[in-house]
Write a structure and sequence with these properties.
Layout (H helix, E strand, L loop, with lengths): L2 H12 L3 H12 L1 E2 L7 H4 L4 E6 L5 E7 L8 E5 L3 E2 L5 H8 L4 E5 L13 H18 L7 E6 L1 H10 L6 E5 L5 H16 L5 H4 L7 E6 L7 H10 L4 E6 L7 H20 L5
Parallel strand pairs: 1-5, 4-6, 4-7, 7-8, 8-9, 9-10
Antiparallel strand pairs: 2-3, 3-6
């Protein structure tokens, strides 16, 4: 987060303009890329495009990747704050190869999705994704695993509150925006950044939890990921990806990373006999 942006937030707070402050936070936090940069056919990926309508009337876009034949579990993939869903297609393919259908969503304002991103908006987008799996694909909630990376981890935790999901995977995720602000700019940063308070929500997550975090994460401090894990209810597990920063967890983790996800899926949503 650039210093100039934080100074602008401080100015907005000082003159008592909370709406401007919120807009400035969102402009720094959300970094969407419009359109599709990687096409499934060009990558040799079997994926269909889907369109979903959110509860507040926004049309959002995503990709659906089928898992194994006669598959009876699904994974909802919620990406981080930058780029678009097409950038995650190779990652989604690896997840589908673990034997789960994968719905890879773009939040509002990202990719081909309509609208403008906001905290409450991306929460609604995630609910639309889960509703699509349950109502359109016929997948029971208890057979759905939600996987959120970075900002998507905070969205996943919000979505999972009080639900009987199969499981939740949280990767490179922070406790709250206020804690992120404090980690960069001290107490002033904690006053300016608000929202995405996963540390207050995670106690309401009933599903089994699997955490990943790189021990060299230069964006989300490792300590915040560990603190979020410590606040989470059991059953839970925390996996350290040695040598990984914020954006190279899959590369650094390699086959062991995907094997760990595969074991989690088999544990929380084993194939029906």
């Amino acid at each position: 987060m650039r210093l100039a942006a934080w100074l602008a937030l401080a100015a907005a707070l000082a003159i008592g303009l909370p709406n401007m402050l919120e807009r400035l936070v969102e402009s720094v936090l959300f970094q969407p890329s419009p359109g599709i940069d990687l096409h499934p056919a060009d990558l040799g990926i079997d994926a269909s495009e889907v369109w979903l309508d959110t509860e507040d009337g926004v049309r959002i876009h995503g990709f659906f990747l089928p898992g194994a034949p006669n598959n009876d579990r699904a994974l909802l993939f919620l990406h981080g704050n930058a780029g678009n869903a097409s950038h995650r297609l190779p990652n989604a393919l690896e997840l589908a190869r673990l034997g789960s259908d994968v719905l890879l969503l773009d939040y509002r304002g990202y990719g081909r999705s309509e609208g403008r991103p906001s905290e409450q908006g991306v929460y609604a987008d995630a609910r639309a994704g889960l509703a699509h799996l349950v109502e359109e694909r016929g997948m029971p909630e208890r057979r759905v695993v939600v996987f959120g990376r970075s900002l998507g981890g905070a969205v996943s935790i919000d979505l999972a509150q009080g639900r009987e999901l199969a499981g939740v995977i949280v990767e490179s995720t922070f406790t709250s925006l206020a804690d992120m602000g404090r980690s960069v700019f001290g107490s002033l940063g904690g006053l300016l950044a608000r929202g995405f308070d996963s540390h207050t929500k995670i106690g309401s997550v009933h599903a089994p939890l699997l955490f990943f975090h790189g021990d060299r994460d230069e964006i989300v401090p490792f300590e915040l990921g560990r603190r979020l894990f410590e606040q989470a209810p059991s059953p839970k597990a925390f996996e350290v990806i040695e040598g990984a920063g914020h954006n190279d967890t899959t590369q650094r983790g390699g086959p062991r990373y995907f094997a760990r996800i595969g074991r989690f899926l088999e544990q929380v949503a084993p194939p029906a006999p």
